[in-house]
Design goal:
about 350 residues; mainly alpha; 14 helices; globular
């Protein structure tokens, strides 16, 4: 169907699908904050699990569709490229939060633990890629381990929030995660939860359109799957994370902003699990190339820098942003330059 469409129509569909994802994500951020208050889940956990998962659905659809069509590189690079882009978005959010360094003000043990979990989950695909080429029913054993590790991480993250073994040092810039009002916390959660689910389905449908148009870009313009996956579809499907992060920061929901990015990235590692299941020509991890591994390493490096910033908690850095934010911008820009040059 998409192959018969003129190129201008494809660009229009791509832009419209991206706009739908962005609009839905703005409303979803507000609803996630309400759900966090009414369920007493907390902004960090709600951002990581509910908001992060919902805004990642469009990206899931892109990767799974690409894998089902046999393009392992497209599926893999879309997943890991999105993780890198979304981590960099926190640096952009730091630019608009003028009171202090964002990582300083959003001190939260649950976010730090999720960053550690993300590094663990990202290391598993490297183990699979460097290990024996094995698959059972077309699924690599690491995919099962990754899925179970994600579930365990979500459960442990909830425990870290409910029963933290340490607390960050209090400063005048520390922003606490508290409901907007006691009355708000007592309201029913069914209606906002239903609306949130409808928005999530909408974002998933838009993701399918983006995946189909991305495939046409690869064919029509002779672009590499790695380039399209890591820098086009990954960035477009990651725009909801940018929008929700900026909206959350403007609302003062800093833990929701940071938790949404880290938790969304943690959920994004499941792209690889679902894609491995959808890819029917063997193990997905042994069908990708070094360019895809490059973006996986970039995502790990950016996550490690972010975790260092959450631990360091620098109040102010160069140009009023934290040194970790500056480093993330430099690393991501360098990675993009290398990718474009290599495929130029």
């Amino acid at each position: 169907m998409f192959s018969a469409l003129p190129t201008p129509v494809l660009f229009t569909l791509f832009a419209l699908a991206g706009a739908v994802v962005v609009a839905a994500s703005v409303k979803a951020t507000h609803l996630a904050d309400i759900i966090a208050d009414r369920t007493r889940m907390g902004e960090a956990l709600a951002g990581g699990v509910i908001l992060g998962g919902a805004t990642s659905l469009s990206g899931v659809v892109v990767s799974v569709t690409a894998a089902a069509q046999g393009d392992a590189s497209f599926a893999f690079s879309n997943a890991v490229g999105g993780i890198a882009a979304q981590t960099m978005f926190l640096a952009l959010a730091d630019l608009i939060y003028r009171r202090a360094n964002l990582e300083h003000a959003a001190a939260e043990p649950a976010n730090m633990f999720q960053a550690v979990m993300l590094l663990i989950l990202l290391s598993l695909p490297i183990a699979a890629m460097s290990g024996p080429d094995i698959a059972y029913f077309g699924i690599h054993p690491v995919s099962i381990v990754l899925f179970l590790a994600y579930l365990a991480g979500v459960r442990l993250s909830a425990g870290v929030r409910e029963r933290p073994m340490w607390q960050p040092v209090e400063t005048r810039e520390t922003r606490h995660d508290t409901p907007e009002s006691a009355e708000e916390a007592e309201k029913p959660v069914a209606r906002p939860a239903t609306l949130f689910a409808a928005l999530a389905v909408t974002m998933a449908m838009a993701g399918w359109i983006i995946s189909q148009v991305g495939t046409q870009f690869i064919d029509r313009f002779a672009l590499s799957s790695s380039l399209v996956g890591s820098l086009i579809t990954a960035v477009v499907t990651s725009i909801p994370e940018l929008v929700t992060t900026l909206v959350a920061v403007r609302r003062g929901a800093l833990q929701l902003a940071v938790g949404g990015i880290i938790g969304g990235n943690t959920f994004d590692t499941l792209f690889l699990v679902f894609s491995d299941v959808a890819y029917r020509d063997g193990s997905l991890f042994h069908a990708v190339g070094m360019n895809d591994l490059y973006w996986l390493a970039t995502g790990m490096l950016l996550t490690a820098i972010l975790l260092g910033g959450l631990i360091l908690r620098q109040r102010e850095g160069p140009a009023r942003i934290g040194i970790e934010s500056l480093l993330m911008l430099v690393v991501y820009a360098s990675a993009v330059a290398v990718e474009v040059t290599a495929n130029g």
